[in-house]
Write a structure and sequence with these properties.
Rossmann fold, 15% strand, 10 helices, alpha/beta, 2 domains, binds NADPH dihydro-nicotinamide-adenine-dinucleotide phosphate, three-stranded parallel beta sheet
Length: 291
């Protein structure tokens, strides 16, 4: 029997409809949620990602502004742009598309984004608050994975989740969010010895590696849930994940496809975070008026 597919495209669309209703409610109160996206240089993949983000914002009635800067932009002029956006009333979320050119210190750039507008959830303050379970913006990809699991009716409490990959934007925060929902979490990475011995124990495998079809039938316990975060090209230049879908299909109880799994959820959660930021700002403004 085939594994059940967790359809991120459908779940993402469902969530976007709910977010669109919240956008309308904000507009009725005079606020249009706004996302600023900064793109430095001409990286073709980054251009595509940015265009998708803008299109998705507009589709649900949000405002989006693209700030394009040349490849040789200095760090100071980029920081200046961010400081300006931090103060703008019409901008509720700021996103700097990564990677950035070599002359720019990514950490300094991310740390300059106001925590109130850090809808990517990458800044040290956002990460710290996430670790402490405080109100913040959750990083979009792991947040999207949590929503996928929830919508698929998978209760993670007490389950053993094995994360393959420990990047700041996917693997590490993914483990934290699962831990907060009472999963038992194991992190694995490129220095892990005998990876199979870990993944084979997993009730939930999260593959965030960046290597085409790396997770095969030998890694997966029958009945495990397999979430594939990877976006790669296979030998025929076809889009594929970190999981060998055909090999794992029928062994896993549930699996996310690539494309159409985690990918659509990342942008969905960016929209959700931006709308949440606009809602929080409106509440704060109302509270100040009532003082
Ligand atoms: P990184 O390259 O930053 O991290 C990859 C991780 O995989 C590292 O922690 C690395 O270990 C680990 N790794 C590499 N080789 C092995 C191995 N042989 N065994 C075990 N672990 C290994 O990638 P990202 O986290 O940014 O992205 C991962 C994948 O997810 C990529 O394909 C990316 O395109 C995709 N992605 C998809 C998104 C979406 O929206 N669907 C969003 C973001 C990313 P070590 O730390 O030891 O080097």
């Amino acid at each position: 029997m085939s594994s059940a597919i967790i359809n991120g495209k459908e779940i993402g669309q469902e969530i976007r409809k709910e977010v669109a209703v919240r956008v309308d409610a904000l507009k009725q109160q005079g606020v249009t949620p706004g996302l600023a996206v900064i793109l430095v240089g001409d990286n073709p993949a980054s251009k595509t990602y940015v265009a998708n983000k803008q299109k998705s914002c507009e589709a649900i009635g949000m405002f989006s502004e693209l700030i394009k800067l040349p490849e040789d932009t200095t760090q100071e002029s980029l920081l200046e742009q961010i400081r300006d956006l931090n103060t703008r009333e019409d901008i509720h979320g700021i996103l700097v598309q990564l990677p950035l050119p070599k002359q720019i210190d990514e950490d300094a750039v991310i740390a300059t984004i106001s925590p109130e507008k850090d809808v990517d959830g990458f800044s040290p303050i956002s990460v710290g608050k996430m670790m402490l379970g405080q109100e913040t913006y959750l990083p979009c990809t792991p947040f999207g994975v949590m929503k996928l699991l929830e919508h698929a009716g998978i209760d993670v409490a007490g389950k053993h989740a094995v994360i393959v990959g420990r990047s700041h934007i996917v693997g590490k925060p993914m483990g934290q969010l699962l831990l907060q929902k009472d999963a038992t979490v194991t992190y694995t990475h490129s220095k892990t010895k005998d990876l199979v011995s870990f993944t084979k124990q997993a009730d939930i495998i999260i593959a965030a590696i960046g290597k085409a079809k790396f997770i095969t039938e030998e890694h997966v316990k029958p009945g495990a849930v397999v979430i594939d975060v990877g976006i790669n090209r296979d030998e025929n230049n076809k889009l594929c994940g970190d999981v060998d879908f055909a090999a794992v299909d029928g062994i896993a109880s549930h699996i996310t496809p690539v494309p159409g799994g985690v990918g659509p959820m990342t942008i969905t959660m960016l929209l959700e975070n931006t709308v949440l930021s606009a809602e929080r700002k409106l509440e704060q403004d109302k509270a100040v008026k009532n003082l």
